[in-house]
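Q: What would this chain look like folded?
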Amino acid sequence: VSATEECVGPMRLTKEPIQVLLVFAKEDSQSDAFWWACDRAGFRCNIARTPESAVECFLDKHHEIIVIDGRHLRYFEPEAICRMIRATKHSENTVILAVVPQKLPDQEEPSVLPLLCAGFSRRFVENSSVSACYNELIQIEHGEVRCQFKLRACNSVFTALEHCQEAVEITSEDHIIQYVNPAFERMMGYHRGELIGKELTELPKSDKNRADLLDTINTCIKKGKEWQGIYFARKKSGDNIQQQVKILPVIGQGGKIRHFVAIKRANTDNNNQVFKINKEDRCSVDHTQSECHSLRHRDRRKDSIDARSVGSRGSDAPSLQNRRYSSVARIHSMTIEAPITKVINIINAAQESSPVTVAEALDRVLEILRTTELYSPQLASKEDDPHTSDLVGGLMSDGLRRLSGNEYIFSKNMSQSQLAIPVTLKDVPPSIAEMLNDEERWEFNILDLEAATHKRPLTYLGLKIFTSFGVCDFLNCSEATLRSWLQLMEANYHSSNSYHNSTHAADVLHATAYFLRKERVKSSLDQLDEVAALIAATVHDVDHPGRTNSFLCNAGSELAILYNDTAVLESHHAALAFQLTIHDSKSNIFKNIDRNQFRTLRQAIIDMVLATEMTRHFEHVSKFVNSINKPMAAIEETSMS
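A: My prediction, written as structure tokens:
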């Protein structure tokens, strides 16, 4: 925050440079020292020579600091000037400094009490050093002036509270009422003077609340958490009123709770009313929607929908238009709730009739439900293995931080492999063919295949797996096209990468095929799903540069800029795979399939590749587990019965 700004809680207010008034009957080294100190501090300074001119100048400028010379009583009485200034309504937030003479060595230290009683804020023992005066002014600015400035700013907050439509009640940490706004007075029927200074326990309570509700509320707010729910209060007249209440603890000095702010609103039926559309209006809405639908699909050519298509209805048009407006107005008045909102409302209602322990547990549930990362797990402990915890923690967050403007650009490896690739599976060398016979086993050693194929395992393993799943028949392509496509994909993996190379792609392809062969998986998928999964596994890291998304974003790479720092590599893998595939007819495995089928297959492949982004991994796993646990449990119960 700059010197011309001040923060009051979350509010930032701009202030003018501090103004200082020097009241000195005659110019001397002391007045000069304060003048130059103000200049050094960037304060605006005025000088007054008489009490009258001092008051007049103050009423015009409203100075934050006033320095009154109290060394020479023959010119004027400093206490009298101070009282004159304090008598004005603008001086409440002004700091007044008395300059007093130095005491003699054998003189007793004079009391500061007379100065304080006269209205002075502090005293300054005469010292003509500019640095000493500067230090004094700076201390006043950082102390009293800033505090007074915050107090002045609070007036705007209280003005807002005074005109707020919601009832607001502020209590101390001991639940003593310190403030209520006019809306609270109107709601409860009390006058402010009847409430301030009283403990909440002194006010009549409604008998409609459950017995332990107050204990539940106190337990929650004393932990520094806000409480929100339905509460019945008793008005001064004795009537009960149902309120929607939110109580917020306010942390103050020492990090302790110093106040509680309660925001209350009458819980009328209108707040929870769900407007229903009657039969006539529903017909109007359906008629309007069907009409719009027919107009939208009658002619897809540009400008094909014009006034003639609506005007052809003749005299029915005005009534239709009126009914349409009526229906739209009713639709806008309907309450629309998300499912999570309904769940939170149900839990809130259940809290009212629950014991304290259950209510506290439900509070924790509500905290979890209100987060935006319901499926993103959190590390329970970081003590067992800090290195593993740091690694997993990094995978669970995207960690995007701007470190520098240096750009990291990698080039695509478009060179084709020089390794002799078999025309068909029958041409595979016997040693490699023997290895591939074990590809259906989980223990299949991909590193042995890497060595045997001279770091080109993807083409060989891909031919074997794609053939066993009937991919060529499904895509209506030849085995030569498939082989050319596999060779092209493998050529665009960087063999220089120690991990994200074609061996890694082959390893993932093997694992994907292994799981696709499981009965529980096969029963849930059709052949399009299987083909999409195998292709996605093959291309999911194509052209990987050996750097993470965070690195590319921090370095400001071209890919990060292209994909807006979002799933950068995953988007690149999917896009490049399709670019390479359709670029050459010899390797285009999609050239013979139906257009609609291609669109479905393409979307499935893209979704799977984008899902490999590690920041989304745990979310996908959690959703997957949640989606199969209940169905599997139902199947087991059925089989047992």
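The chain is about 50% helix and 10% strand.
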